[in-house]
Design goal:
This protein is α/β, with parallel strands linked by helices. It is built from 50 helices and 62 strands.
Length: 2010
């Protein structure tokens, strides 16, 4: 959608033609309303490099061909006769000259602009015309839609679509081919006086319409732009591109000559030509990337601008559709750090000044020499940010300086105004001036803290905000709905309206008032810098060139004068010259951070490996081993190994420290001795015995595998509904109806643990058993392995085999689940085969997968942003976002757990009254800083890891108590680390079964992780702690490996018998005390167990600031917390994080981290106190908030937690100079500073009292517990624990995951006195320790209130389309966020979607691709596995239908077993059939609620038929039957074979059809009937016309003698109403492809809707008068029409000389719910068996019956599952009632009509009359028809309602009639229906003697009416020679005369005898005929009538009520 072809189509002839054809389709006249998602197509303009042509070539290159042949002379079309040809006037004679129209008011339509046209004959004036602005270029000559649309401003003629035509109209008189590029010259605008004047020239070609070429290098014109066309960034496919948010590049080291390289200049930007250096990737957040080589890469000549002129910018979420079109292409932004052969490098991009004029490169003479020994002398590697103007050439020791163009890119991007501000001539809106940018940069650097690293994104936002504020009024003019607050995103770096150090009037000045002059700049910058002492140095007035400034900086560095300076800003202002600037970073911390951020992540890991392997790091490791005066670690460890044979876990010195520490709590009721509380010398200690359970088992532990949680079920259903929506759409992209089973393959990242975890989930979910119908016993877990594949080199073969399988099994739907989908999105063409990247692109985006109609791809990810770009393959309609579990605090899913994810972690840092779960470790950070200064060459990851492991080793030594004097060790580790280690060691000792918890150490480098594992293992061994906890190295490429003793322990806990079982996933390590060292560049989807307690991320990199990277690491700590665990707010123990979760979890940015699920323990929500004992200690300790490190000594943190208002700042010993905010407690706390030994966190077990237990076994980090609260008595803290209800026993060995991908953990209920730390821990989320730099970034908010990390670039593979983008808003839903990224991000060239625009399709969405996104660990795996199960069930369900399955009714108990026909007879013999008695009894179960027809030999059963309610759909028995291949289908069935049949041609346009009237006369109706046929063109051969396209004459009928194996002779008529979607009219498969004539008989008012759904079916439209009629009328008309047509065909045959009588006289009357047909197979060995056959076979068999012409009516059985096994022995043929599917002989039955007035039982009435007329009726019992239950529409769904209102009201049957002339509520229902319903429901009152009296039936003459199930009706015909039953000796209990005709005579009635008191009912159309009937039949002789016995139906006069009279027999 949209046209981002810019730069992707090469301008060769072929490409131009292709481009033109695409644009021609876009220019068609049909204007389609823009859909909601149109903003997806509002493409950012894309900047394209030009091809370096010389400056005078701009005129000619548009003309002529591309060869060197001379231009062809242009012959202008001669103007029409009599029109004006004067120059300056249009052909209508109106003046067009600017001079004439300047003051006129001109009507310019919206979206058009006034343009000046240059006429060759008028050099001095312009002609005025209005042109649609979409066909004009933007200010850089791009994005004009191909073609032209203009209006003449003289005569007002509109709609010129071709410029040639328009140029003729305005008399341009050209000698060359008219081209808009040559002749549309200037924008016109009105000046202040309102006069129209010439404005800026239309920029058809780049900047200023000119191309300059500097230098003459031949290669310049052929720069390949890969990423950022404006920079002409060069790319080499072999690089693995890395990236950084604002990303960084360095100039190539060792290429000093780079500044001398000639540059080709494009749009005012310099770009290095390809000789200068190896090519590299470069791309910017503000730039859409383009792809492909541009050897001749001028922009396509015309370009569709994909946004309407009316669209206004609006950042409010509800109007995201109108978001600001992505602004003009930002000229240069280099954002991805790029790799060139391992060297770090970047294109040198000298910069044009803000005015766009060009600064030439500095002459070679001005070079700066980098001093030798710079790194050695200063201990840092300075980073130079290029700013304005060219950087001088660096020579000398250039390897020790890094150069980055990040800042320069930022300057450029913020100076390129979006096009929206430049529509109408010169705009008052100007970009920020160079001077203002430099001043703001200085101000930004000044306010950075000493440890903060500059972030280009922050600076960019400051520029944006400043610009917006300075142009507030003008911007509002363009963007009314947008407020500056919603526009500005400040990331917590607020630019105050007054800048300190600036004069008031200069603070962010609106540039229109008082611009900042170059001469003021140095002074103001120095003034601003003076506020931070030496932190920022400005070299301004004293330097005359950048070279001089850099030289001074290097000198000062070498002299040590910049020791305290972090940044040197060099500003050069000289009169008459452009201001130049650059920034040199000289702070050690900042230099290191910036340098490391220039590595890609893979390069960074390579560098670390290099440092470890070459031994560079050994000095550091050795240094860390030394503990100063406390000795050396190794020697201490050796002594520990030697001395201690039986050491106690806690040495006495440790205990004493703890005792001292405990005394400080001043707990008045502390009756337990501290020694008791802490000593755990043996398992028999009192605390161990506290749990009332066996010594080695733990009553609290219970791990269960649960059912799918409600929210997962909801998501699975959402997925299913999206799949159904794809199938239901008219695009025919997915034909669900054609699949009979589901198969799938789950693709996971190449992590062995993730692979095994998915296998475990799959196996446990039961999906395999469901899909394969496999027997549960015989399926092993190894079978699940076949359905999961790791995306490594082995995946290729698996996917290839799946594609082959899909190709050969077209009836199987294959689901490719791409889990963790954000992991590998690299383009296959950019990835080397050994990197393992690009596989997803190669496999999933291959043509075979894309085009396979039975492969559906489901991407599943927590971070979908990289898949939501302008070029995405996934339609926004196919995205499924995890729903929020809460809406306005209402729990939508009633889950037992709440999701605790990234937003909740952030919330915990802001709560202020409790220890945040996310924090940093200040003492660790200070030690790292010191070592970073000491070892400047080492990578910070090496230093951080070494220090961290050192801290862990020392903490292990201290906590183990095995080192003498261990209290001295505390100062060599951090309090946080000591806390973690003590908690780890003591937790397992506390629980009788040794349950503990997990500590996660995240070390991305594999080499460092392996070193850490070896080091920790060695220390553990030397301390003798091997049995206490396990140390696990989590390497993605290796299987999980743990010690045998720990495996045995887990097997005991999980009750696993299998001797060979070993854990394969981290989930199976539930409750194992362990340290997991998780390595790998990024987590690959591994789920962690619920026993995870600490998530130590202190080593992760701070360099790659992308939203995905950050959230992915934090997502490791995501957790499902029991929803009930929320103690009340007034609880004395301080506020637990979870206490206020009600507000927090629902008010966080919910749709972003949606899904606070709750699904775990079956605890009742009525329990008032629901804390977890582990949390009790969380909050009581003020120490726990003391690391809420929001207030820091030297930083300006913009976000301060509320807790800081209650802070008491304490000087801390050692390196900890941070303050510790304390939460308010209910009792006094004592914040005295303890010595380190006293400040030990108290984490020794104590289980005598639960409160004590909460306090002392607290395993949450208390990083600086120097301050211990005075608590209220500990016994008061005993929070009753809600875990005291037993749960169902563990059903199996399966585990519960933290992620609960397929369920969640439910900790066993327990008493309030929990001794098991694990059971307490599962009720609270883990604590997260972060690097300080990341903590600051993550906890800051931007101006919209969102966490600052959400506004970072979403992924390294994408770039921002513009820096003028609006901001993400806190109110955005996930869908709106997706639309935001789809509009404002573009994929870089190495992203797999970057090629998605080049395929020439108008929309690039893959139709069978879905995206499921949800926060990490929320349960997505369980949801999609459940989806696979329900999809499979649905497909089976789609292949099945509900068939009526009822046994025949009313079988006589004494059915005589006379065999008339041989059982295997194929066809009935008419002679035998005549001897068979006619069975009057009705056997069809649908009629079990109607009156029985009297049959002499029949004896009803004693119970009779049960009375049924009216609604037949609810009560009738059905069976689910799988559709056979011969089924009839409704409109939802689409398959390849049906397309032609259904009338869809390949372009999905409806077939044409024509309407034909057909008139015939019928005596019964007394007038001509006019019917209409709708006949599709494809079906016209079935009809004969007077001439082609003329009057319809007849429907062609075959001859009796005709026979063809592929043809059905009888026309099929299907009357239908209300079932346009659900009627089974698709007989293609049922007919097995045979040719047949099928006619739908529809009511007039439904004609249009039936025609829409069935465009290729013939319709017979009933006359208007039948709109309210019943089924009787339809059958009546079909039969009469067919007879009339038979006569017409006979006469047509006679005229043609053929035999008249030979025309085929049969028609088929089929119900619209007949779905399948069966035949009985008599040869089966086990008795008769039915099997499905085609309708073709049934009909051909019946039509082939030799004596068929003897029969009036044939039919077949209704199917029943017990039809062949019932007690009734059926012959192959029978005579009796026929229903639903009839073969009618219209010739023989000519004189018996259907009753046109009937609504019910019309077929019973017709069969009785047909039989009495002597016609043979035959039922073929060897065939049966299955009827589908369709609960919609049909002829039985008439609603009886009053005339007063349209609302159906309940009207009882007694109200259906009334006395004539009475005031009564009239009903809007046909009179006949009211009468039938009245008789059905009240006949027991009308015929009291007849009720339940089979031997005395009611005599019904000439018609059958339903008198209800309790009354029996005896049918007789009054016609002469009719066949009637013998009524001799029969006494009738009533007489029914309905519309008695002349055949009924008094004599006829006298043949019958009636009981005394029998009831008479006479029915007539009006009162007079009623009286006439009574008189004519002399009824008053035998019947007594009363005046009150006359009734009418409750109809108004105009509705023709029916009248009836009742009487009693005398």
């Amino acid at each position: 959608m949209g046209n981002s072809y810019a730069g992707q189509l090469r301008t060769t002839r072929f490409e131009e033609v292709l481009h033109n054809s695409i644009e021609a389709s876009l220019r068609s006249n049909t204007i389609v309303p823009r859909p909601v998602f149109s903003q997806l197509y509002l493409e950012s303009e894309q900047s394209l490099p030009h091809d370096g042509r010389t400056e005078n070539d701009d005129e000619d290159d548009e003309d002529g061909s591309e060869s060197n042949s001379p231009p062809i002379p242009y012959q202008m079309k001669t103007p029409p006769e009599g029109c004006c040809t004067t120059d300056g006037f249009c052909q209508a004679g109106r003046d067009l000259r600017l001079s004439s129209l300047a003051s006129d008011s001109l009507d310019v339509p919206p979206g058009f602009m006034l343009v000046g046209v240059k006429s060759p004959s008028l050099s001095d004036t312009l002609l005025v015309c209005a042109v649609d602005r979409r066909f004009l270029p933007d200010e850089r000559g791009r994005n004009a839609l191909l073609g032209f649309s203009g209006n003449c401003m003289g005569c007002g003629e509109k709609g010129f679509r071709y410029f040639t035509e328009f140029s003729n109209h305005i008399n341009l008189k050209l000698s060359t081919q008219p081209k808009k590029q040559k002749h549309l010259k200037y924008h016109l605008y009105r000046n202040n006086q309102g006069v129209l004047v010439k404005g800026a020239p239309i920029c058809w070609r780049g900047h200023d319409g000119r191309m300059r070429q500097i230098g003459s290098n031949p290669s310049e014109g052929h720069v390949t732009s890969d990423e950022q066309p404006p920079n002409l960034a060069l790319t080499h496919p072999s690089h693995t591109p890395g990236s950084y948010t604002a990303a960084s590049h360095v100039d190539p080291i060792g290429l000093p000559q780079i500044a001398d390289v000639p540059h080709s200049l494009t749009n005012g930007n310099h770009a290095v030509s390809s000789i200068a250096q190896p090519p590299l990737n470069q791309s910017g957040p503000g730039r859409p990337s383009t792809t492909g080589p541009h050897t001749n890469a001028g922009p396509p000549k015309k370009r569709h601008k994909g946004w309407s002129p009316e669209s206004s910018a609006n950042s409010q979420p509800e109007s995201t559709v109108k978001t600001l079109p992505s602004s003009s292409a930002l000229s240069t932004l280099s954002v991805s750090s790029a790799a060139t052969n391992g060297a770090r490098s970047e294109t040198a991009v000298p910069l044009s000044s803000s005015q766009g004029s060009l600064t030439p490169l500095s002459p070679p003479g001005l070079s700066v020499t980098v001093p030798d020994q710079l790194l050695h002398t200063c201990g840092l590697q300075p980073v130079i940010f290029k700013g304005h103007g060219p950087l001088p050439q660096l020579t000398g020791n250039v390897s020790e300086v890094l150069v980055s163009s990040l800042l320069q890119s930022c300057y450029l991007s913020s100076q390129t105004l979006p096009r929206v501000y430049q529509h109408y001539g010169p705009s008052p809106i100007q970009p920020l001036s160079t001077e203002m940018q430099i001043l703001l940069t200085v101000y930004y650097l000044v306010q950075l803290g000493p440890d903060q690293v500059p972030l280009i994104e922050d600076l960019e936002q400051i520029f944006m905000r400043s610009w917006r504020e300075s142009h507030l009024s003008e911007i509002r003019q363009y963007q009314q709905p947008q407020t500056p607050a919603s526009q500005g995103r400040h990331y917590g770096i607020e630019t105050p309206s007054t800048l300190p150090g600036l004069p008031q009037h200069l603070s962010l000045p609106p540039q229109s008032q008082q611009p900042l002059t170059p001469s003021q700049l140095p002074w103001l910058a120095q003034l601003a810098a003076s506020s931070c002492a030496e932190g920022v140095v400005v070299l301004g007035e004293q330097v005359t060139s950048l070279a001089q400034g850099l030289h001074q900086t290097f000198s000062r560095l070498m002299e040590g004068r910049l020791e305290n300076t972090n940044y040197v800003v060099v500003i050069v202002t000289a009169p008459g010259q452009e201001t130049q600037s650059c920034v040199v970073v000289t702070g050690k911390h900042q230099c290191r951070a910036l340098a490391e951020s220039m590595y890609s992540s893979s390069e960074g890991l390579r560098e670390i490996n290099h440092q470890l392997s070459t031994g560079v790091a050994q000095e550091l490791i050795h240094y860390c081993n030394s503990l100063g005066q406390d000795g050396d670690m190794d020697s201490l460890l050796d002594s520990a190994t030697l001395d201690s044979n039986e050491p106690s876990p806690l040495s006495s010195s440790q205990e004493s420290a703890e005792e001292r520490s405990l005394k400080n709590t001043h707990s008045p009721k502390d009756t337990h001795s501290p020694k008791d509380s802490h000593t755990q010398c043996s398992k028999d200690s009192p605390s161990a015995k506290e749990a009332p359970s066996p010594k080695d088992s733990c009553s609290e532990y219970s791990v269960e595998w649960r059912e799918v949680r409600p929210i997962q079920l909801a998501v699975a259903r959402k997925l299913l509904s999206h799949v159904c929506a794809i199938a239901d759409s008219s695009t025919q992209n997915l034909d669900l109806g054609s699949f009979d089973r589901v198969s799938f393959l789950i693709l996971v990242p190449p992590s062995e643990v993730t692979f095994q975890q998915t296998v475990l989930h799959l196996w446990s979910s039961g999906v395999l058993q469901e899909l394969g119908g496999l027997d549960q016993e015989c399926v092993f877990q190894r079978d699940a392995v076949r359905y999961v594949v790791k995306m490594d080199q082995s995946a290729q073969a698996r996917i290839d085999s799946l594609i082959q399988e899909a190709h050969s099994n077209s009836y199987t739907l294959y689901i490719l689940v791409h889990d963790h989908a954000h992991w590998d999105i690299s383009s296959a063409s950019y990835s080397s085969s050994d990197s393992g990247l690009g596989l997803v692109d190669q496999l999933l985006n291959s043509r075979q997968v894309r085009d396979a109609p039975n492969i559906l791809i489901l991407h599943v990810t927590s971070f979908p942003f990289a898949l939501q770009t302008q070029y995405t393959r996934i339609s926004p309609y196919n995205e499924i976002h995890w729903p929020s579990a809460f809406s306005n605090d209402v729990d939508l899913y009633h889950e037992r757990t709440r999701y605790f994810g990234v937003s909740e972690l952030l919330e915990s840092t802001r709560s202020g009254s409790s220890l945040p779960l996310m924090r940093y470790d200040s003492s660790f950070e200070s030690m790292v800083s010191a070592l970073e200064e000491r070892f400047p060459k080492l990578h910070s990851a090496v230093i951080r890891t070494t220090v961290l492991i050192q801290h862990y080793c020392v903490a292990l030594m201290a906590a183990s108590g095995r080192i003498s004097g261990s209290h001295n060790l505390h100062k060599h580790t951090s309090v946080e680390t000591l806390e973690i280690v003590q908690s780890l060691l003591t937790a397992a000792q506390q629980c009788p079964a040794h349950h503990g918890h997990m500590v996660l150490l995240r070390i991305p480098s594999l080499a460092l992780a392996a070193w850490a594992h070896r080091r920790l293992s060695r220390v553990r061994r030397q301390l003798g702690l091997e049995e206490n906890f396990e140390i696990i190295l989590g390497n993605p490429s290796q299987a999980l490996n743990i010690g045998q003793s720990f495996t045995d322990q887990i097997k005991t806990w999980l009750k696993i018998q299998d001797a060979d079982w070993v854990p394969h996933t981290y989930l199976e390590l539930e409750a194992l005390p362990c340290i997991l060292i998780l390595s790998g560049a990024e987590p690959l989807g591994e789920s962690l167990p619920r026993s995870l307690k600490y998530c130590d991320l202190r080593v992760i990199s701070c360099s790659y600031l992308h939203r995905t990277t950050l959230e992915q690491e934090l997502g490791l700590a995501a957790y499902l917390v029991r929803a009930e665990s929320r103690p009340p707010h007034n609880h004395g123990s301080g506020s637990d994080l979870l206490e206020s979760d009600a507000e927090k979890l629902s008010s966080t940015d919910n749709e972003e981290e949606e899904g606070q699920e709750n699904g775990d323990s079956p605890l009742s929500s009525s329990q008032p106190l629901q804390s977890c004992p582990d949390n009790g200690a969380l909050d009581p300790f003020p120490a726990q908030s003391n690391t809420s490190p929001n207030v820091q000594k030297n930083t300006m943190d913009t976000i301060q937690s509320p807790s800081q208002t209650q802070t008491q700042l304490q000087p801390q010993p050692l390196s900890q100079s941070f303050s510790y905010p304390q939460p308010p407690l209910h009792h006094q706390t004592q914040p005295q500073v303890q010595s380190y030994s006293q400040a030990q966190p108290i984490s020794q077990p104590q289980s005598q009292s639960q409160g004590q237990n909460q306090l002392l076994s607290q395993t949450n980090p208390q990083p600086h517990s120097q301050t211990l609260p005075q608590h209220q008595s500990l016994s008061q803290m005993q929070i009753p624990h809600p875990q005291n209800q037993p749960l169902p026993p563990a059903q199996s060995r399966h585990l519960h995951s933290k992620s609960t991908s397929s369920g969640s953990l439910s900790p066993r209920a327990s008493s309030p006195h929990l001794s098991c730390s694990w059971a307490r821990g599962v009720s609270r989320p883990p604590s997260v320790l972060l690097p300080r730099a990341l903590y600051d970034i993550i906890t800051a908010s931007d101006s919209s209130g969102l966490p600052r990390c959400t506004s970072f670039l979403p992924h390294m593979s994408v770039a921002w389309a513009s820096s003028f983008r609006p901001l993400l808003s806190k109110m955005m839903t996930c869908t709106e966020q997706s639309l935001y990224y789809r509009q404002w991000t573009v994929p870089r060239s190495f992203h797999m979607d970057s090629s998605n625009r080049t395929e020439g399709r108008s929309d690039n969405f893959h139709p069978r691709r879905l995206l499921l996104s949800g926060p990490p660990q929320v349960g997505k795996t369980g949801a999609y596995l459940h989806f696979l199960g329900i999809l499979s069930r649905m497909l089976i369900r789609l292949m099945e239908v509900d068939i009526y399955d009822e046994e025949d009714i009313n079988f006589s108990t004494q059915a005589e077993g006379v065999q008339y026909n041989p059982p295997n007879a194929s066809w009935p013999n008419p002679d035998i059939m005549r001897t068979m008695p006619f069975d009057y009894t009705i056997h069809d179960p649908k009629y079990d609620d109607i009156s029985a027809v009297y049959c002499p030999g029949y004896k009803p059963g004693a119970d009779g038929n049960p009375v049924r309610q009216e609604d037949v759909y609810l009560r009738r028995r059905t069976s689910r039957i799988k559709l056979s291949k011969y089924a009839a289908y409704n409109t939802y069935h689409h398959c390849e074979q049906c397309h032609q049949y259904l009338g869809f041609n390949p372009r999905y346009q409806m077939y044409e059809s024509t309407l034909h009237a057909f008139t015939f006369t019928h005596l019964l109706l007394g007038e001509e009937i006019q019917l209409y046929f709708i006949i599709p063109k494809s079906k016209e051969h079935y009809f004969s016309f007077s001439q082609p396209g003329g009057q319809l004459e007849s429907m062609r009928l075959p001859l009796t003698s005709d026979w063809s194996p592929d043809c059905i002779k009888s026309p099929i008529f299907t009357p239908t109403t209300g079932r346009h979607e659900h009627g089974l009219f698709n007989l293609y498969h049922a007919m097995d492809g045979a040719s047949h004539l099928h006619i739908l008989v529809v009511k007039e008012y439904e004609m249009a809707v039936y025609k829409k759904y069935w465009p290729n079916h013939i319709m017979l439209v009933l006359p208007t008068v039948f709109n309210g009629a019943g089924i009787g009328a339809a059958h009546f008309l079909i039969k009469e029409l067919s007879y009339h047509n038979l006569e017409l065909e006979r006469s047509r045959r006679l005229e043609g000389g053929g035999p008249a009588g030979d025309v085929w006289p049969f028609i088929i009357l089929a119900d619209d719910s007949c779905v399948m047909w069966n035949a009985v197979d008599l040869d089966a060995r086990n008795g008769p068996v039915e099997h499905a056959v085609s309708l073709k076979q049934v009909l051909q068999h019946m039509e082939a019956c030799p004596d068929l012409a003897h029969y009036g009516l044939c039919g077949i059985r209704k199917w029943s599952s017990r039809g062949l096994t019932g007690n009734k022995q059926r012959g192959p043929f029978s005579r009796g009632h026929l229903h639903d599917f009839l073969l009618l002989n219209v010739d023989r039955s000519q004189n018996v009509q259907y009753d046109q007035n009937r609504f019910t039982c019309h077929d019973v009435d017709f069969t009785l009359r047909l039989h009495s007329a002597g016609l043979l009726v035959c039922r073929f019992n060897s065939f049966s028809v299955m009827k589908k239950q369709i609960a919609i529409g049909g002829y039985r769904t008439f609603i009886i309602k009053t005339k007063m209102t349209d609302v159906p009201t309940s009207v009882g049957p007694s109200q259906y009639i009334c006395a004539p002339d009475s005031k009564h509520l009239f009903l809007a229902t046909p009179a006949q229906l009211l009468l039938e319903k009245y008789l059905q429901h009240t006949s027991q009152k009308l015929f009291p003697l007849s009720t339940k009296n089979y031997t005395h039936p009611v005599l019904s003459v000439d018609c059958y009416l339903n008198l209800g199930p309790e009354v029996t009706v005896c049918f007789v015909s009054s016609r002469p020679h009719s066949v009637n039953i013998s009524t001799t000796g029969l006494l009738f209990s009533g007489l029914l005369l309905c519309f008695a005709d002349s055949f009924v005579t008094p004599g006829f009635l006298k043949k019958f005898t009636f009981l005394k008191g029998a009831t008479l009912c006479v029915i007539s159309a009006d009162r007079s005929s009623l009286r006439q009937t009574v008189g004519r039949l002399e009824l008053e002789e035998e019947w007594r009538f009363r005046l009150s016995d006359e009734f009418q139906t409750a109809n108004a006069k105009e509705d023709r009520p029916l009248f009836f009279l009742t009487g009693k027999h005398i």
